[in-house]
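Input/output pair, single chain:
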Amino acid sequence: MLNRNVQPPICRPEHLNIQEPVCRIMPNGVELNVLDAGDNEVIRIDVMVAGGLWRQTQPLQALFTNRMLREGTKRMTTAEIAEKLDYYGAWLELSNGMEYSYVTLYSLNKYLPQTLEVMEAIIKEPAFPEKELGIVVENNLRQFLVNMSKVDYLAHRSLMKAVLGTRDVLGQVVEEEDYRHISPEVLRAFYNRYYHSRNCTIYLSGKVTDECLDRIEQVFGSAPFGEGFVVPEKKVFAPESCEGKRFFTERTDALQSAVRMGMLTLEHKHPDFLKTRVLVTLLGGYFGSRLMSNIREEKGYTYNISAYTVPYPGCGMLVISAETANETVEPLIQEVYHEIDRLQNELVAEEELTMVKNYMLGEMCRSYESAFSLADAWIYARVAGMENDYYSRMLEETKEVTPSEIRELARKYLCKENLKEVVVGKKKS
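Output:
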């Protein structure tokens, strides 16, 4: 009989058995990465185009180019695309990152020929119809105007400019007039420049059969597609944070204030990055973190507060995020600095550090248990430029980090002087 009064033992994983993708180059030069891992008759296709936000010549160009792929092709209207995907139980996702744009299709294996036909059409022959573009732009503009009334959205924009600067694309934020400058010609120019067989990579995950592979090669690997491809020039970004410490935006109607604190931090390839992940999790990366225990549980200043890192090409950004009553903004910020001081001056108790490690190791095991989560993991590693041993190193360094290392990392990388403070809300009377 199971004795439910006795806590089961905690078993740490000795190693992560993360299946690596099998890479093959198709006849037209497109790289195909295959993760055959799954029992269900479902497959996912990720087409990564090396033309993300940092390649655009004007704001919103990459986003709307990708978004408009599903709004009509030379052979299919937007209604026909939606109806066909719905009929065959498929799901299409379109998204953008700084370095890549993504077209992702989830499909039942038995209907792959029909759903792949839609995916091929939207990637190879989008029409960018003017009427549909007008509707999409107007809907997005309305959502933008709604967001501009929210304190958390305004705080995010202000933090981006404060930490990343406005010199290059990393710190640029979208303005209302940017929506007015989007046209089919603008999108077509970006599409022709980057949507090409020499500029894309495909990840195939799920229950991958020989029939699936043959179908993918026939559609995306047999002949080149795209026009006049030129190898993109290498870009290097060097963000420069703005002068000043506090950035305040007043919203007289705000019931509470949004608080964001942030600064430039390590990129993924830095030798200290993986152990610094443990430090950030300890500070504010899970429900039992220092910030949550103090500022939410003890002080009651906020419902939620978190600390996390955001990756960018060549750098990263540490963000501390919370919403609080207008009158408790200053106490909340001071408690954040107090917790940083504790990490810099006191050794973390072994029991607390062990709990954080167990949480992170458990999240790692949970994150790589399915075919689609494996695809996400390897796409992430590719975008970050990491080697195939990245996840095994993550496991080992998470297990091995010590309290003294945590303290040294806090002293080295949690520099209070560099933290920008962004507040959006009502000014105290």
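The mean pLDDT is 92. The chain is about 40% helix and 20% strand.
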